[in-house]
Amino acid sequence: MSETMLEVKNLKAGYDTAKGCVRAVDGVSFTLGRGEFLGIAGESGCGKSTLAYAVMRLLRDNARIESGSVLFKGKDFATLPAAQVEAHRWTDMAMVFQSAMNALNPVLSIGAQLTDAVHAHRKVRKAEAEAMAVEMLKLVDINADRLKSYPHQLSGGMKQRVMIAMALILKPELLIMDEPTTALDVVVQRSIIEKIEDLRSRLGFSVIFITHDLSLLVEISDALAIMYAGRIVEYGPARALFSDPRHPYTKGLMNSFPSLSGPITRMGGIEGRAPDLLTPPPGCRFSPRCPYATDSCRSGDGPALRDLGDGRSCACTLEGGLR
Amino acid sequence: MSATALELTGVVKHFPLGSIAKFGKAVHAMDDVSFSLASGGSLALVGESGSGKTTTASVIARLYERDSGDLVVDGEAAKPFRNRAESLAYKKKVQLIFQDPFGSLNPTHTIRSILERPFLIHGLANGRADLDGRLHDILEQVGLSPAKEYLRRFPHELSGGQRQRVNIARTFAVEPSIVLADEPTSMLDVSIRMGIMNMMLDLKEKKGVSYLYITHDLAGARYMCGTIAVMYAGMIMEIGPTDAVIADALHPYVRLLKSASPSPEEGLSRARLQASGEIPSLIEPPSGCRFHPRCPFAEPRCKEAIPELRDLGAGRKVRCILP
């Protein structure tokens, strides 16, 4: 793997609620190489968005990072004072938010919003910021005369491309995308994905792509991390995870979407439902739904990620994971 | 029961626009929609958002009446309801499963009160004990047991998957012969989708109902249904046996849809059909073939007249003038 760009170590983050602390990210560690495309897959409520917001230090007021570190550009973003994080946010790491439909301000033109992002982080002249906005719009295949358009005049796919342009306008090294294509139709989704791939090869940034759509992720990611109930349960090269999943949850997920070719076989999915993070089950958090669980799985702190070789790791007590 | 459960011939549904400025204009939600559903068969209606899928289901369920065209259900032509008894009799035959399991259950009612309604409205139970028995049966059939436990709960106490099961139980309570399922799994987590789909397949087998299964997911359509109809901008573009249509799509739009669908087996390398743009406005739909502005193979004559849905034999029909 190439040089490490982002290293997240044993990150714990949670929300304070009236009923207690919901630890949505519970001891997550991973590394991301320069230019790498990491996919994080998980179901709703597994903590994948919290992880993204924690890395960006954009957590909501009732949420906090409890422990762990986020090493980026030689600094620990988990503990860095907010003012210093500000200096890196958007210039070095940027984010494409979920549902572009709501992420743009409806009463400001696209141009105003794009240049706003520039002015907030760089001291540049107005004309210069506008030139940057035009250049970025061109990169995402939107005509420069759209600068004066308002979000409601754009289609869903165009809005999402504006969001991508906004995230890339300061040429960050890391782009975090939180379900960027979920609300879009497949044809539009495909054009967005191709755009990201094209930009990545031209600009060379790294991507953390978060989604619940595993079939898409397997296709586009270099590495894949599967999250369940606040923890990464399996990590490795995307194709290897797809063809030979080791964690029972990964296996269940891979058996949860039918295919477009080959014989139609009855697929299983996974029984049960994801646990409530307010009171997570003891031991392995997947054990209540796991068909292979034994008594030892249901006690203690739950298995940690173990190295399986070939760049793969898996958090399961079964020897080498499932074989 | 006739061999054809449902037959639509040239059904049209336009929604007039309300404002004075747009007087005389309408949203062309359904134009010349024709297909038939064999008794005990299953047809997948696939298309992007705004293609008219849900309108088609609502017109069949007669939530609103079609503007023109014929609708024949179980060999009987649908005529305007003269009284409540006729309306009820129709709705007992044709039932809908809604997309949103969170919005389609009244949050202030218990599951018992929600599930009692179809029995009471259609007068299907003989007294309290019989009603109780039927409620238990129907809940067990959708995999919610012990039924007693679920009957006293409120919708917010159930997970998305469980709520969708309650929805399906309500649909099957009146023993319909045709079930219109409007994206029943699109709002559920990946791992529980298969459970719902499998349950629907089992129920179909057991009850001998016919399904109109609406989805935007080609692979899901292939898993669920023997026949597929692909809609675009209010019109059916291609109909045929699912395997044949997916393996060898004839209409350029269906080919585009297929090449855009995620397919981990094939990876990023496969050849893609290039097409730009998004679904057109249905207020002023394009002249001629509605797909021609995006079609990479469009010819001048495509703009002139709307192509017929040509019968190609072997159950396949396509609305394209190109060979």
Q: What gyration radius of chain B follows from the Cα positions, in whole Å?
A: 21 Å
CATH fold descriptor of the largest domain in chain A? Rossmann fold
Class by alpha and beta content of chain A: alpha/beta
Number of strands of chain B: 12
What's the number of domains of chain A?
Answer: 2
Encode the helix/strand succession of chain A as letters: EEEHEEHEHHHHEHEHEEHHEE
How would you characterize this protein structure?
The complex is a heterodimer of chains A (323) and B (323). The model of chain A has no long low-confidence stretch (mean pLDDT 90). The two termini of chain A are 26 Å apart. In chain A, a hairpin with a 2-residue loop joins strand 11 (306-309) and strand 12 (312-314). In chain A, the strands form two sheets. Chain A has an eight-stranded mixed β-sheet, with helices on both faces. A four-stranded antiparallel β-sheet of chain A has the order 2-1-4-5. With 323 residues, chain A is an alpha/beta fold. In chain A, helix 6 (156-168) packs parallel to helix 7. Chain A contains ten helices and twelve strands. Chain A has helices spanning 48-56, 82-88, 100-103, 110-121, 126-139, 156-168, 186-203, 214-220, 238-243, 248-254, and strands at 4-17, 20-33, 37-41, 63-72, 75-76, 93-96, 174-178, 206-211, 223-228, 231-237, 306-309, 312-314. Chain A folds into two domains: 4-92 and 173-273, P-loop containing nucleotide triphosphate hydrolases (Rossmann fold, 3-Layer(aba) Sandwich); 104-171, no CATH class. Chain B is built from ten helices and twelve strands. Chain B is an alpha/beta fold and 323 residues long. Chain B is globular and about 70 Å long. An eight-stranded mixed β-sheet of chain B has the order 6-7-8-3-9-10-12-11, sandwiched between helices. In chain B, strands 2-1-4-5 form a four-stranded antiparallel β-sheet, covered by helices on one side. Classes of the chains: A alpha/beta (323), B alpha/beta (323). The interface between A and B is large, with 43 and 41 residues.
